[in-house]
Amino acid sequence: MNLDDTARGQIISAYADGQDAAEIGRRYGLTRHDVEQIVAGDNLELSAAAALRQPAPAPVMAAVVVVALYSTVQLTAIVAHPYLDGPIFKLISVAFGVLIYGSLAYGIWRGWRAAQWIGVLGGVLAVIGAALADQRDTLGILGGALLVGLLVVPEQSREWFARR
Asked: Which of 10, 13, 25, 109 has the fewest CB atoms within 10 Å, counting from its CB?
């Protein structure tokens, strides 16, 4: 994010006055880490480039694993479904599923905010669908709740998606 000298000065003075770095960051659309780097005098553009090279935090990687496991279960169910006739239909369905779930997992791994919210929406819908089914799907409820929790609750996850 490109900040002019006035904004940088305001951030530094607010931090010197004892305001919380996270609150300052919210006002200027920055993360707490970015505010601390501005105060320390580091170049924000260089820190943003370095942040893109950092590995994803553990909760984000766990969310990617949850999406991968959920996709494996869903795609296996498509292949094993007795009422879906024809190998072409099954192949197209699996290819489409791999594309959708793969894109979601890649977006979460890269820190794309849209992928975060699609994952949250998918997790909420999985919980609702599994809870309202004729036969309760405990695995669906736990998997959906785990995905939502991993994408929204940990501070590492929120910062990962906020800076991209």
From this structure: 13
Query: Hey, where are the domains in the chain?
Result: 5-53, 58-162
Question: First and final CA of the chain: distance in angstroms?
Answer: 10
Q: Tokens representing 82?
A: 């007795």
Q: What angle do CA 40, 46, 51 make, to 5 degrees?
A: 95
As a whole number of angstroms, the distance between CA 83 and CA 85 comes to 6
- Give residue 128's identity as a one-letter amino acid code: I
> Pick from 96, 104, 94: which is nearest to 68 by CA?
104
Q: Could you give the CA distance from residue 137 to residue 48 in angstroms, rounded to a whole number? A: 42
Cα 74 to Cα 97: distance, rounded to the nearest angstrom: 8
73-119 tens-digit pLDDT: 989 988 898 887 888 888 999 999 999 999 999 999 999 999 999 99
- pTM equals 0.67
